[in-house]
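Table S2 (continued). Query chain:
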Amino acid sequence: MKTLNVTISDIEYGMFGMTSEQLNFTDFVELVSRQLMRQNLNRCVELAEKYGLSQMTMEEITNEMERGLNKKTTISSKIPPHL
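Corresponding output:
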């Protein structure tokens, strides 16, 4: 088994919700994954607000997605298979 030493700031230590200075790799990956998910969720919320999606119902969003997928399918069906 190998040991990996990582240095982080006190702010990052608190931001990741760490409670111990020693973690196994699985716990470390879980902490980092959770933080990345939070950041991605925050970015999604920002984009939803920017483009007005935050005011749409789930049904309206689903309909928009289906229209976009149908349009993409129609366009891609016109592209020759060798491209």
